[in-house]
Amino acid sequence: MTVIALRHFIDGAWIEGTGEALVDVNPSRPSDIVAEGPGASETDVDRAYCAARAAFEGWRRTPARARAAILLRAADIIDAHRDDWGRELAREEGKTVAEAIAETGHSANILRFHAQEVERQSGGVFESPSPGERILVIRRAVGVIGAITPFNFPISIPAWKLAPALVWGNTVVWKPATFVPVLAMRFAEALEQAGLPRGVLNLVNGTAAVGEAIVAHPDADAVTFTGSTKVGRLIAAQLAARGIPFQGEMGGKNAALVLADADLDVAVEQVAIGAFRAAGQKCTATSRVIVHEAVADEFLRRLAIRTERMVVGDAQDEGVEVGPVVDVAARDRVAAALVRARTTATPVVGPEPYSSGALAEGYFVPPSVFELHEDAPGELWTEELFGPVVGVRRVASTEAGIALVNDSEYGLSTAVFTTGLAEALSAIEDIRVGVVHINSASAGADLHVPFGGSGASALGPKEQGAAAREFFTETATVYLRG
């Protein structure tokens, strides 16, 4: 297959980087090189910031409707390439073709949503206690935004950060994850072809050093980040010392709570979807399952059958349900955790690592379910593995189940399975996470409502929906006297 030349988009031009060489491989078949070329250097990052700063005044003064029109044209371009770019996403990142095409189309819808948001009220007029005076509250762009995005949603997460940033008048310096430069290039191409002025969006591909340069640059007015909690907190601390706003969507250790009155067919299917799609590499993936003891045996029996039937294979093949994890380090890290789990937990579905054939060549991890010991549940309960693995614990009551849901430093997403209204309302009231699903998978986020968590899962304003403008704009209160 074609090897794509890795490029960077700085000041309206596609250029070759001046940093270290990067090789982007297909995680389903690592011998397949997807893209290669020099990554960005600190000098390239500086050029990107200079371009973004130079473009800011003109872009923020561009009428909002004109900015929105560019996003709408870019959305149409993405839609026109949805199937082809979706297949590239599956090849590059390892998400199944069906999921990859759906994500690509979703990114176009995100652009459309935020293009429409600037048509809504963005300020207000207030009465003043002083005669002849009115008080206005207006919103304005923050400035130059540093954006760092992850591998697991290589076009939709950039869309939900960059679309509100751009439509509200900011300029951007953006680093995607090292593993997904191609989809980042495609997204930038769509905006370029849609007529985005030079310097408004600048794309720098590279390793973690490029992200560090984005955070450290003196021209950064704010930084938005999605990634691990450890890295996010380090970035937040650096920025706080300089007084720079930070938005962080970080880790998750999400629970599914299956109550005694749950529809087990629904619960099993939704837990499987939440745990194993995208090979468990979602911040909202289900990785802990808490099940009432009255239905635990039957639930585990059905979950074992569904898990064993999951179709694992090349992400580009039709009918595959679980593709690879993103790289060899991720595969080996999850595999090592599963070896340790066999000494501290009871395997419900605990297959050995793939040792031959195509699955052994690629970065595949078999979907696994372990029942955890109450006295020492271990890392399957506490650590974000980012793989197709779930740990299960039994409880004797709804109250005990809710307590275990909250037994985590993370607070991103939870799924609750019940047919009882009272139980659902209790869960909504008492579970301390940012996203609660009743009778649906923990993994999932809609573009028109706020997304984000609490605790170790998030810092700063939430993302998506109308909440997105809270980070990408700042308010000014104006006292106006005639």
From TrEMBL:
<feature type="domain" description="Aldehyde dehydrogenase">
    <location>
        <begin position="14"/>
        <end position="478"/>
    </location>
</feature>
<dbReference type="InterPro" id="IPR016163">
    <property type="entry name" value="Ald_DH_C"/>
</dbReference>
<protein>
    <submittedName>
        <fullName>Aldehyde dehydrogenase family protein</fullName>
    </submittedName>
</protein>
<dbReference type="InterPro" id="IPR016162">
    <property type="entry name" value="Ald_DH_N"/>
</dbReference>
<dbReference type="InterPro" id="IPR016161">
    <property type="entry name" value="Ald_DH/histidinol_DH"/>
</dbReference>
<keyword id="KW-0560">Oxidoreductase</keyword>
<dbReference type="Pfam" id="PF00171">
    <property type="entry name" value="Aldedh"/>
</dbReference>
<dbReference type="InterPro" id="IPR016160">
    <property type="entry name" value="Ald_DH_CS_CYS"/>
</dbReference>
<dbReference type="InterPro" id="IPR015590">
    <property type="entry name" value="Aldehyde_DH_dom"/>
</dbReference>
